[in-house]
Amino acid sequence: MAFGTPGKPTRADTGTSAPAPGTRSTAVPLPPEQPPAAGTASTAKAPATPPAPEPAAAAGKAGALPAEQDEVVGPEGTRGMPVPPVPDQAPLKLLAELTNTPPPPQTLVRTILRRVKIWTPLVVLLALVFVIVQAVRPLPSVSLALTAAPSYTFAGTPLPDAMPWPTEGQSTAEVEGLGSLGVHGTQTPVPIASVTKVMTAYVVLQDHPISGKESGPKITVDAQAAQEAKSEDESHAPVKKGQQFTERQMLQLLLIPSGNNIARLLARWDAGTQDAFVAKMTAAAKRLGMTSTTYTGASGIEETTVSTAVDQLKLAQAVMKYDVFRSVVAQPNVDIPGVGRIFNNNNDLVNVGVVGIKTGSTTPAGGALMWAAHRTVAGKEQLILGVVLEQHAGTTVDDSLQAALQRSQRLIESVQGGLTSTTVVKKGEVIGHVSDGLGGSTPVVAAKDLTAIGWPGMKEQLSLTPAKDLPHSAKAGTQVGTLGFGSGSARTSVPVVLQSDLSEPGFGAKLTRLG
After folding, report:
1. Residue 477: which H helix or E strand, with range?
2. Which of 42, 47, 62, 55 is nearest to 17 (CA)?
3. What sign has the CA pseudo-torsion 132, 134, 139, 142?
4. Over the stretch 389-436, which tens digit does the pLDDT of each residue have?
5. Which pTM was predicted?
6. In what helix (H) or strand (E) does residue 199 lie, and over which residues does it extend?
7. Does the N-terminal peptide bond of residue 357 adopt cis geometry, omega within 30 degrees of 0?
8. E strands of 455-506, at which residues?
C-alpha cells in the first residue's frame, strides 16, 4: 500500500519503479519486518513508487490535467464527480443552464403579450358579470316633471290697487286658497273690543268640539252671569240663574247679541276661572302666529286686549274651519227657549253673500269688524275674509261701528265683483313629461281645460302632482298625475295623461346607466 501527498489519493501498484529523474519519492517505507508466525510461509514485498508517465504521452492526451493537479481517483480506478455550483441565478437561467437552452431575451412586446394572456380572462369575466348585473338591476323610479310655465297672471288692472280701502285705521282681506288682497294701515296693536269673543269661541270649540247638528253638553247659568245680565254698561244676554243651555246655544248667546256675561260664563265653565281661560287664549294666539296680540279678558271690554288686523285675519282663517261656528255667525237672529229671539248687530248680514263674522265697538277701539263673505265663480263657492279696525265716525260708539260696517261692505263688494275665471291650460296642451330615469321621456297633456279662479293682476303657481306608483310602461291616455291651480276651496285641477305610449327602457339604456 502506498500513500500520496496528504489529502490526495494515489494509485496502488504491485510493481516497483524508480522515481522520475529530479523527483523525490513520496513512498512511505513499511515498518520493519516482523518474523512470521510459526507455520507461515508467506513473505512480503516492499512496494515500489509507480513510474512517472512519459511527458509526451501525458501531453498528448486531450483534456489531461496539468501535472501540478493530481487526478482524483477513487477505489479501483473510479473517478470522482465535480460538485455543481451553488444556484445563485434566477430560476429561468438555472433551468437554461441545466437544459443547455438560453432564456429568450426580455422585450417590451413579450412583456405586453405575457400580461395580456394573464389579464384577458379576468377582464372578460368582469365584463360578463357587469352586463348581467346591469340587465337585472331594478329600474329607477319614474318621475313626472312640469315643463309648462310654472305660474299664471290674470290680465287687467290689479284688483288690490282698485279696492276702496279705508283711509284710517288698519285693514286687510284675502280670498281663502288664492291669497292676500293686501294690507293697509300701520299694523300696531290696538283695542279690538268684542272681536275678542271670536277667540273665546275658538278656545271653547277646541276644548269641547261639536260639529254638524250636535248641540254639545249643557251648561248651567251661575249667579254671576245672571247678575251681569242686568248691566246697562255693556252688552249682555238676558239669562237667569239656574237656566241650562247647550254649548251651541251658549255660542249663539255669545256671538249674536255679543253677550259679555256669556263670555265670562264660558271661561269659568271651560277653565275654572277667567284668568285660567285667558292663559288658554294666549297660548292659542301663539300657536296661530298672532305675535302682536294680547288677551286680558274673555269679553273684550278691557281696553288692554289689543291686536292687529293681520293677526285677527289669522284667527278668522282658523275659526271658520268649524262648521258650527260658521252656522252661528251667519244667523241674523235666533230663537232660544227661555230667552226669546235675539238679533245680530252685524247689519251687513242683510247683504247678499255676507256671512258674519263679529263686530266690536268701544270708545277706545272705535268701530271694528271681522267679516266673511261668499262669491260663486265657475261653479265653486269662494270664501272671502277681512278685518277692519279703528274706524271712527260721528259722536257715538255706534256711529263708529256703522262706519266700520259700511267701509267693510264696500271692500266686500269690490272683491265679489273682481273675482273671475279664465282658462289657464287648454285640453291637449303639453304641460310636462314622464322620465324613465335612464334618459327616456314621454310627454304628458292636460285631459281637460284647466279653468282657474282669481282676480286681475293675481299671479298664482301651477302645481303638477304625480299619481301614486307611476308605471314603467303604459298606453297613451293613461292618467299619470293632476295639474292644479290655487289651494284649499279655491283650488281647481284637471287630470294629466300620457300623450303617447310609455315604454320600459331598452337593454342599451340599462347597460350604459351609471347611477
Report:
1. none
2. 47
3. negative
4. 999 999 999 999 999 999 999 999 999 999 999 999 999 999 999 987
5. 0.69
6. helix 197-207
7. yes
8. 459-466, 479-485, 492-498
